[in-house]
Predict the structure.
Amino acid sequence: MKTNITTKKLTFAALFMALTIVLSLSIFSIPVPGGHLYLCDVSICTAAILLDPFYAFVVGGIGSFLGDFFFYPAPMFVSLVTHGIQSIVISVFAHKLFTHNHKVGSIIGVSIGAVIMVIGYTLGRAFVYSTPEYAILKLPFEILQAVIGAVVGVILCFPCNLRKVYYKMLGNE
């Protein structure tokens, strides 16, 4: 797979990665039974809609891995795999499979990505914490986190025209 690396694309990926790491902090989360509801899914979904699959993986997989590594390392590999796959799937749907209608591809991508995130974290929690009960307790909040990330990501990119602004800044209107 050939990736067209430009300074602007690299800068946007770095910006979204930093945002993902910051939104992984507990101060930007909502306390819920069994842990926190994190807002990093908003930046992961938005980045995956805008960026190609390679950069989407860097933002979602590596960004969430680093957020966990710095602040709460237990689930860092679960985050790497789950958010990495989620980001690639969203980006592939938005850029490769629905080239004629990016909005439809993005909506389908974030929907499938939300399912991947919920399943990945539920299985990951059961494995990391060795208790399926803990994973089930957190399940409704994982679903809510995935839905918030997917919905806000699509709203930012299409009704708020972030996608149009992004491509204008890249020079590819």
About this structure: Strands lie at 30-32, 35-37.
